[in-house]
Design a protein that fits this description.
about 450 residues; mainly alpha; 21 helices
Amino acid sequence: MDAGWTIVVRFASLYCIYYILRVAYRIYFHPLAKYPAGSAAVRDRKAAQAVWYEIQECEYHQIHLTTRGSTGPVIRIGVNELHINSPDYFQEVTKVNSRFYKEPTFYRGISFPTSSIGLVDPNLHRIRRQVLNPLFTVSRVQTIAPKLQSKIEHLCHKFDDLAAKDAPVNLYAAFKSLTMDIVSEMIFGESFHVMDSAGFQHPHLDALQDAVKKAWIFRTFPKLGWLSLNLPDAVSSTLFPIPIIEFGKVCRKRIDAYLENRSKPDKRIKSEILEQLLDPNAARGHTVPNAYDLNEEALTLLTAGNDTTANAMIIGAYLICTHRTVLERLVEELQTAFPDGSESITFEKAKQLPYLTAVLREVLRCSNPLPGRLPRVVPPEGASIDGLDLSPGVVVHTSAYLLNRHPSVWGSNSRQFDPDRWLVEQPLALDKCMASFYKGARQCLGMKYDSPS
């Protein structure tokens, strides 16, 4: 054997020994080795392994659900990653002033870096949150309730027209259209009028749906997401033919037109969200975003506000219609409260109906908009929660899907659709444990718009 092959063999042998020792360390000697492990616990977070694991992401859900806690609340799902299915842990991590922070790589792959969701730095996020919070309060919901109601009534008229023609209704597309028109008007001052498109089909909806479907690609390959955002448009559109990029251009045109017309009262359409972001005095430390960053925030709010709300409505309609007793009780309560069929069902009157409120709460519990992992990183000082000693830098995941079905909170029928669970003296105790909107400083901005309370 010549010298060249000798070097290759030695190098290959050394690498095999290194690999075996590394696997042995991760299985038996790593600080997280004491926790039961999923199949990917000793794998690198390289592309190939990550793709395999993302496909198998349901694994930890199945372990938690089928073992019913016999493995404990903690499962190791990566070399330095844990999945924790514990309501107590969730409450501790999401409490006010929690030092746990977003895992940067994950959020770079699913959101824009300067948006309210993509901002990883807690201080920058706090400032952005202070800027937007005034637009997402209970009083603000009551103020815009008439606008929301007019959109809903418009959709109902569309349903009446289809019923008169004995034509089927695509509720999936219809609800997506409704939320798109509501959210786009809130952001840009005027809607996209998606509900007026034939069959509720519209390219903007296709773009957002495609973005949701392909989010796992950029979650697995975050550098691809960075490239798609930072390459010149001509290059990016060729290498990454993603509809959301084209939709982003549509939104950018609206942003540019809005900025151009701000000083022209006769042409101006007011958007309270954009005005709030453009106000240098909206919060201490707030830097007015440029047009590019405004567009990132607009796309983030459009995606988050449209997809999550519409999915809750779609799943809610299905659950109500497939549970006959729930449907009958709900119709009876509504007919009693609104005996005149032509009377508008206003927000003020509807929120007084106990069974309707219970049904909506249960729909939100069962229709988790983000059922997958939301990783946080243990702060530099480490943490001790619910009997767990967590080292600094460990990535910990929670799942709204599992937390909203935890038997210790929701009982033995936690996986069933049962609005009666909310008809108790203290429903807020259950509300405190519901993870649909996350909790704490990072909870959903639009929570007040979706919450039945």
